[in-house]
Design a protein that fits this description.
Elements (H helix, E strand, L loop, with lengths): L3 E6 L4 E3 L9 E5 L1 H24 L11 H20 L2 H10 L6
Antiparallel strand pairs: 1-2, 1-3
Helix pairs in contact: 1-2, 2-3
Length: 104
């Protein structure tokens, strides 16, 4: 299948085929299936973020006991790994400079 350019905003979970539709952070080149898979990972990360939000309102439970924090970290790492894999050279360079992925 042919790849096309998509424009991604992590905070909103948007993966758009037109860079003029919204502000974007990362440019990727992906098949429609890969773009859909990235959207799924972004949605999962958003669900974990909401779970963390609600857990944060439990005053007697220490944050280190929240499995959702580890789950969110894992999901967000998956997002950035996919962005790095599918990204344009500029996207790959930017993500590498963030220091959040282990390239060893």
């Amino acid at each position: 299948m042919n790849k096309q350019f998509y424009y991604v905003t992590v905070a909103t979970g948007e993966v758009l085929p037109d860079k003029t539709l919204s502000e974007w952070e990362f440019e990727i080149e992906a098949t429609p299936e890969e773009a859909s898979q990235l959207e799924g990972v972004l949605k999962q990360a958003d669900r974990e973020a909401w779970a963390n939000f609600w857990q944060a309102h439990i005053p007697f439970k220490e944050y280190r006991h929240f499995q959702q924090i580890d789950d969110y970290d894992h999901d967000l790492k998956c997002v950035y790994e996919m962005l790095h894999t599918l990204g344009t050279p500029e996207t790959k360079e930017h993500i590498a400079s963030m220091g959040i992925l282990d390239f060893t």
